[in-house]
Amino acid sequence: MSTPSQRVQTLREQLNEHNYRYYVLNAPTISDREFDVLLEELQALEAEHPELVTSDSPTQRVGSDLSDQFPTVAHAHPMLSLANTYSEEEAREFDRRVRERLDNESFHYTAELKIDGVAISLIYEDGLLTRGVTRGNGEEGDDITPNVRTINSIPLRVRDTEVHGTKLRNFEVRGEVYMRVEEFNAMNREREGRGEKAFANPRNSTAGSLKMLDPKLVAERPLKIFIYSLFTNDLELRSHYINLDLLKELGFRVNPYVQLCGTIDDVLTYWREWEEKRETLPYEVDGVVVKVDSLEQQEKLGQISKSPRWAMAWKFETLTARTKLNDIATQVGRSGRVTPVAELEPVFLAGSTVSRATLHNADFIAELDVRIGDMVEIEKGGDVIPKVNRVILDERADNSEPYTFPVTCPCPLNSTLIRPEGEANYFCAHNECPWQLRGRIEHYASRGAMDIEGLGEKVVDQFVTLGWLNNVADIYDLRDRRNEIAELQRWGEKSADNLLEGIEKSKTQPLWRLIFGLGIRHVGASVARILAKKYSQLERLAEATQEELEEINEIGPHIANSIVDFFEDTNNLYRIKRLHDAGLRMGDPEPDPDEDEGYTRDAFFAEKTFVLTGTLNNFTRDEAAAEIEKRGGKTSSSVSKKTDYVVAGEKAGSKLERATQLGIKVIDEDELALRLHHVHENKPGGEPQNR
Ligand code: IVH
Q1: DSSP state of 650
Q2: What is the predicted pLDDT for the residue at 527?
Q3: CB within 10 Å: which end of the chain, N or C, has fewer?
Q4: Cα of 661 to ligand 1 centre, how many Å?
Q5: Same domain (yes/no): 251, 351
């Protein structure tokens, strides 16, 4: 047994290490809950032995995310953190303390979701965003204004809002920057495809994104924000709940699921409801935050060290489970990349049974030192692909051995795997590897690429096995096998014809889909779009030189090299010729000059639906609609989930309200004018800028 002093020392070392991993490396190795357990033990020991408290104890500060890459600025009010609990007992205890301190005055709570992202403070002066700062150590944070400006849902200028005749112009708001799970997953897949390290979860990825040094790169990350607090000297604020409404009027995104609660039981009900429903949300939440609603009462309650007495975080159980790692399988993707997959003793976790989880790559396995036979902790959040968090070392068998990555491809050809320098992944370099082949054909036909209906994974697998498909060009010879296909089990004439029709239709797909579908390494959908825009014919892309490609803004030497290599490979050229002979369009039609009137399609407007509402000062609504349509956008008269932007003029009413309810982006006339103008400036002939 260790003495209290020794235990305090150990706990501090552990907590400091975990704080560092969490805030600086963005790579935690224990769950929040486990961290809280350690912190609570330390708090209890320090309470019992006040002589052991030191100023540098982890209990004495808010975790810090300060880095030396950004200027440091002091917060006008400290950014506090919240005391938290997982237990109803402690939640009721919180309520008892509040009531006691308020001398049994009547009061309300607000209950809201605790968004699992990264806290940020935004300063507005005369209605304009002037500064964005991270929480840092609570007292001072990193000034990351240029990065914050790239987040679309943060208004650069707020809407005019009057409260009792006073305009709100100078204030600070705070909120949580986060990523939607689906967008996070898509981004991670693209990263892995480029051989980059995958992020552990949306929160880490958000934190990493906000700390990037190039705002252009930040702009590519799918960051969003919910604002949850407001500070100002312009007027006297009274209620947190009403503040949230005010924030909405100012044009901020506020989470719609806030609830005013009369009693602690109402809050507990809200907590239980969301614990059940959390997975229906498109973003991750890790609990609920309960706050005393009246700002006057908040002040009366005050704070202890780093957290307020008027608020508390009630956490949800984390979605982790422990199970045995039975084996590590390897999968070969279309690029030959070998992905290790954990085969687990099936375990029930957050609504489904999990028997596989990703292990990313050889480095990831080595970092965790995960071994076959280990007990591991797996985690699943929302739709995030389950992953192995860590090994339960205490339960490791004595005779376990470090995992060694296989040296050969699991396919029947058994070719030797290679690991290119600087890559985290192993690759099967054999061009005829049947696993790669299947992956390539599947990818070509997939919804994100050539979108051939009826040619999904199972069908590809079946046709490859039958020897009917050996490469993507063979797809277009399938029409010679119509009767054979119709005679297959579970097929029939109708299905065969539908498939052939789907194949026929793919011949006129836009060029970017073809480029993406060809599966050139490092060329994802967004690079494919850029290439299609630049070259408009596959033939011209095939002739592009390394230097020429590198001149394109978004294309570095890596991508350029891989494109040139692809078009130098005679096998590829032969297949492309066959696609051409099969009647594929192989390019995009030149834009029709009559239709275009010389305007450039603009990424901000293209394929987006806008609703115009309220009074505009410098356009009629028809004029504004025409300008939007010229740039490839659509306009509609009613707000629905399909609306992308609501342009709110003066006195906007119910449509604006509905937009805020649905979480639809709202822009004002100035922003619309700015964006329309932005396209004009690039005329004539210039490339539209990418947003
Ligand atoms: S209020 C003093 N409301 O949770 C109260 N915080 O540990 C300040 N968070 O740093 C925070 N959703 O990053 C509040 N609806 C919400 C929140 C929220 C997420 C985060 C925030 C804060 C941490 C508290």
Answers
A1: B
A2: 85
A3: N
A4: 21
A5: no
